[in-house]
Amino acid sequence: MAQTKFFHHGRFALAGGVLPDAVTAYRTYGDPKNPCIVFPTCYGAKVADNEYMIGSDKAFNPDQFYIVTFALFSNGESSSPSNTPTPYNGPYFPAVTYEDNARAQYAVLTKELGVTKVYCVAGFSMGGQQAYYWAVMYPEFVERFICICGSARTSPHNQCFLEGPKAALVNAVDFKDGHYEKNAERGLRAFGRAYSAWAYGQSWFRRKAYLKNGMYTSLDDWLRAEWETSFYPQFDANDVLSLLRTWQLADVSKLYAHSTMDPSTRPGYMKVPDTFGDLHATLGAVKAKGLIMPSRTDLYFPPEDSTAEVDAMKSNATLVVVESDWGHIAGGGGCEEDTNFIRDQTHKFFRETS
Amino acid sequence: MAQTKFFHHGRFALAGGVLPDAVTAYRTYGDPKNPCIVFPTCYGAKVADNEYMIGSDKAFNPDQFYIVTFALFSNGESSSPSNTPTPYNGPYFPAVTYEDNARAQYAVLTKELGVTKVYCVAGFSMGGQQAYYWAVMYPEFVERFICICGSARTSPHNQCFLEGPKAALVNAVDFKDGHYEKNAERGLRAFGRAYSAWAYGQSWFRRKAYLKNGMYTSLDDWLRAEWETSFYPQFDANDVLSLLRTWQLADVSKLYAHSTMDPSTRPGYMKVPDTFGDLHATLGAVKAKGLIMPSRTDLYFPPEDSTAEVDAMKSNATLVVVESDWGHIAGGGGCEEDTNFIRDQTHKFFRETS
């Protein structure tokens, strides 16, 4: 049984400010002598939730690999609005980007765990977006990356979709501009409801898969049991919003764009690249081998975006579409058949690139 | 210039109760001696908004047809929470179904306007759903119907999508369980934001069509100008919710299911049909000729649902998919090319069935 560990960075610069003692939560699986797989969390996940893809019969086998899972900043385990002391608590928590997360994770790997090379960075959804950042930011360190139902840049439609749940939460009667004394139950339950219809394909609903073979009696029953509670009570409202901001800021071609640090005092690795804002050129320069797995029916990370991104990476990346009506959730462990397909494609990718 | 007229029904039974003096708002265009086209409103529309399809160069030519446009109950012009006196005001307004709307519109046509046969009932979105109801409820009266971006039954996914904007509104700080003294601005603006990403196809966003050729500078700029204001201030929050309930209750195979009237006292035309709940059989019995025009990229009335419904109607109905990336809005007048395509297909349908 893996334990969650906490790495203290001390003073650590994020895009929107500096935390006096930033913390990254992580878990490790397997022998540190084996090739390393880095596997960051997705939206609405705790670090333990990544275990759906870890096991001897899963995509990532701890008998063969040294697997390190990371909690994203703002997930409630790594530094987040809910666990950071004044003056960076709650609504005062600074903006965080994927590059901040990747830098923090890199620090844990190199300073604490002695990792000198990463065999593969893999992730689902926000985790998949992070995998792109890893490939761009650490070309000499990352050999492979896998992006499941994610993208290198959050598309305008994806941004717009996120504005819906966000509007439901920030205008809710108990959110109080983030200054609630008790977690915003109504806001978070509304957030879940406004999120729900985006998570699966239309045909998944058409065949009433939400009834879960008789577990629920109606759409509303399912919404109440699975979506009003998908964030409440286990996630803090300010955390949910901060994590959403990281998602919305994603654009791997715009590294360090959101940093408030004076450009003249930034370390070398934080220099803005010449290809700033040019996604095609940024992806064209990626050295790591990529496996990009969108779901056919994903409503907010549609396969069209993945196709364009794979084309930009030329022969370095492979596109494999998960043929599923589970929409985005196809990559999140909701459907065993899809999870097994992703496992098999992952193993094939490892064989063919090793 | 057409004027809005108001028909007073007197005491009128709706699904959820009886209004002492129900009102239907409508407009007429053209000569009453010409064949009659009935054209009810969609969600978030006033009766005048239907003019985007009325004109000598439009789908419905007032030189050839007698066109009657109807405001749906709860749109703020026909009887609605916002304009109904105590005891049925605001949150106390009874539930309304499409069958109530069709019955009310039928009364206006036959009692006030002397119409004895309808050449075509046509509508977009909720208006298109109403067209299905007309065809099922008045088989001897309706010769043709056109459903643009609508369906005969609100699918589970469509229901679920609607729960998002609804949750944003009903949990908003100024909604106050419908007992606001001033229209719920924050709730309605959140409602608009939670609705926005559903209205267009993903590729419409990908090509940044929301910037409207330089009219806006960012996604947020467009959201503020076009979506936060799509319901506020011109629509009342309780109206918006009541109309949404009509939409969610749509199932043309379940006529009178929601009526609170004692079945033994219902008039003959309100008897529940033998095919209750059987959409395939209900549609199979439709006599009117149907033209069903979904948009290829409509996220909540996807063409798959229309295909199944057209199949059920056999040779009586024709499916024509609008090939557009404007999503649902393709049918709502947002894109001139799509509007013209729908016009041309409408004229073709009229020629081939006359």
Question: Could you walk me through the main structural features you see in this protein, from its secondary elements to its overall organization?
Answer:
The structure is a homodimer of 354-residue chains. By secondary structure, chain A is an alpha/beta fold. Chain A folds into 2 domains: 5-154 and 250-353, 3-Layer(aba) Sandwich (Rossmann fold), CATH 3.40.50.1820; 159-246, no CATH class. Chain A contains 10 helices and 8 strands. An 8-stranded mixed beta sheet of chain A has the order 1-2-4-3-5-6-7-8, with helices on both faces. The mean pLDDT of chain A is 96. The A-B interface holds A 155-157, 159-161, 163-168, 170-173, 175, 186-187, 189-190, 193-197, 200, 202-206, 208, 210, 219, 223, 299-300, 302, 304-305 and B 155-157, 159-161, 163-168, 170-173, 175, 186-187, 189-190, 193-197, 200, 202-206, 208, 210, 219, 223, 299-300, 302, 304-305. Chains A, B: GO terms for molecular function: acyltransferase activity, transferring groups other than amino-acyl groups. Chains A, B: The active site is at residues 125, 298, 328. Chains A, B: Residues 56-330 form the AB hydrolase-1 domain. Chains A, B: Pfam families: Abhydrolase_1.
